[in-house]
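Sample intake sheet
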Amino acid sequence: MAPAPEKAMLVFNVEQYAGISAELCKSAEMRLGHFEKRRFENQEIYIRLLTPVSGEDCGILASVAPPDDQMLFTLLLAHTLKKEGARRVTAILPYLAYARHDKNKPEESLAAAWLGAIMQASGLDEVITIDVHSERARRLFPIPVRSISPAGLFAEALRRCGLADATIVAPDEGAIGRSEAVLAALGRSERVPYFEKQRTAAGITHAELRGAAGSRVVLIDDMLDTGATLVSASEKLKQSGAREINVMVTHGLFTGARWRKLWELGVGRIFCTDSVPLPPGVDSTRMVRLPIVALLRTEILRTEITIPVSGLS
């Protein structure tokens, strides 16, 4: 039996991840850290640690997604932990916002690189996330980004819902790798049908499907934001004769109202992890929520914490 670590990682969380944090800290290798955060009357933000951190390995379970308060409090907490002597600080960000801003275009911001730079400047040593948007975004970070694949979690959910034999379809070329990973987790090896996507002034359009899809389809992508890509792909699948369409995404942002057209198109279920809390007003009864706590726990425990107790005097 492996020896227990000398000290457990201290996990500090923001309110929206209190439930996941509580589950993580049921493990002997993690314990809950406490802090106070608030704004002064002049709106400047403030952090005060309530748990000593000198020499400790610390994790911050939080978000850097809008509203911008979330990023500012996360970065200031990281800086405070390092200032107070934390040995190592890991940002545990289930959804890594700004990762889509990964293309270096003239006269345009490159927010993925900017976010990585300010994380490093704030004292963060690494990032743990679920399904980072692209390898390009990961390379823009000056600190390590460990991205956890949800493929096994997705495959388990498909088996449980009787969809293990459905056609896995990628809504664009960027989703092919994710779709292949889910197929592999299902023990299947066929080629993934995919759409070629174009962004125009009028919006997103899809060409005809490259490959063949059966009557039961699962569209797989890393996120459902406004839903434009998945709506367009679902329209094409409907036109080609698909009788049952399901959507499976890692991050359910559910921005605006356009994504609701998925229901009008006959999408049966939307699977998404609990990496992001559902926005107010989103009906969860037609969603299949997939918990990420086990994925996070496994990856966090890969983090080098302290030298384990040898048991020898």
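Comment: The mean pLDDT is 92. Residues 167 and 213 are 6 Å apart (CA to CA).
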